[in-house]
Amino acid sequence: MTTLIFGAGNLLLSDEGFGVHFIKYLQDNYTFPEDVELYDGGTLGIMVTHLLEEADRVYLVDVIDAKGEPGDVFRFEKEEFLLGKLPIKMSPHQIGIQEVLTLSDLRGRTPDEVTLFGVIPASYEAGVELSPILAELLPKLAETVVNELKTSGHDISTR
Asked: Which residues contact 151 (CB under 8 A, 6 or more apart)?
């Protein structure tokens, strides 16, 4: 079984780049087995459909537009995507992850398990650094994902 951890976002708009910063954090702090792929998806949208379709398990990390406070993390599963039950708007990428998953589902190629960790941003200001609130969140969310992977049998070590 292959697992994809996919971080989306635009690094030039501070917190909008959270998913990409998340992937870099994982790369810098953990060692993953070959069956776990970390992918900086940037704002590629539909261009990465094949990566999502080739994985058995996908974790998506992105910012979302939802009610709450900056730094709040929401978790959504595949069924919520495909049934249109997400009470949020994904970040403003050209074609979002929701649309990509819907296209994959129409083609019968949706991964068995898909989880979105959506984070409410504090800032979309121009800049390559995360706001302090979201920078502080990186290790906590990384630990959550890594612990889930370990529980499912992946051998992950700290660098």
From this structure: none
**In this structure, is residue 158 part of a structural domain?**
no
Quick: pLDDT tens for 54-72: 889 999 898 988 889 999 9
The span from the CA of 104 to the CA of 127, in Å, is: 33
The helix/strand/coil state of 153 is coil
pTM attached to this predicted model: 0.85
Q: Are residues 9 and 128 in contact, defined by beta-carbon separation less than 8 angstroms?
A: no
Rounded Cα distance between 110 and 79, Å, is 11
Q: Which residue carries 């074609």 as its tokens?
A: 95
Range of the domain at 71: 3-153
Write down the residue that tokens 């390559």 correspond to.
Answer: 128
Number of domains in the chain: 1
Domain membership flag for residue 46: yes
Angle 117-120-121 (CA atoms, 0-180°, nearest 5)? 120
